[in-house]
Model the fold of this input.
Amino acid sequence: MMNSPYEYSITLPKNIENDRKYPVIITLHGIGYDERFLMDAVGELTEDYIIIGVRGDLPYGKGYAYYSLKGYGNPERDQFDSAVEKLSYYLEYAFKTYPIDLKRVYLIGFSQGAILSMCLALVLGETIKGIIPMNGFIPEFIKTEYPVKPIDHLSVFLCQGENDPIFPLHVGQANYEYFRSKASSVKYVIYPTGHKVTSNNKSDVVAWLRNELAMSDQANSSGNQNKVSSL
Done:
């Protein structure tokens, strides 16, 4: 049996049904936060999604981190590579442990978590259906040195603080241009804030995830009808 490489919290739908698979939201926090930070942001979706908050394994202030920094935008490379590997392994662990619909896996991350969510989507390809990176960037070495896979199936909701001093607007624009050329759909919203997540941002994320769920349910329904018609 696999063991989890990270501490984590999880919420399951209250009326969970046997033999049914559920979409999952996996949240990745920023430096100094913990696994509850983004779980609470999407808490009203607990009846529709399995929600998992993964805690970084490095203590940082009153919270945690997944890797250390040499400076903003300059991760300790060995720790970063290790975090990507361990998070990939964590996903395998979660898929084998919980009733997760493997076609509906979503990652949401803030700051350091946003960076990792984008990296995992590029490295894992079809394993990830959608990502919500909030105030982050894509390190150049990911594009040039990592084994990036096609993401033409991927849904992306990019969130950016207008006055973010860590990841300025031009960084968010670069993220948008990169994903717009490769992903299935990309939404990009700039919020009147700094390096933080606003209540409006949270509401938009919940609405986007509900829309994703509705579209996938509709696609599944159409697929089942087509199967019946062909019999």
Remarks:
- The chain is about 40% helix and 25% strand.
- Residues 1 and 93 are 9 Å apart (CA to CA).
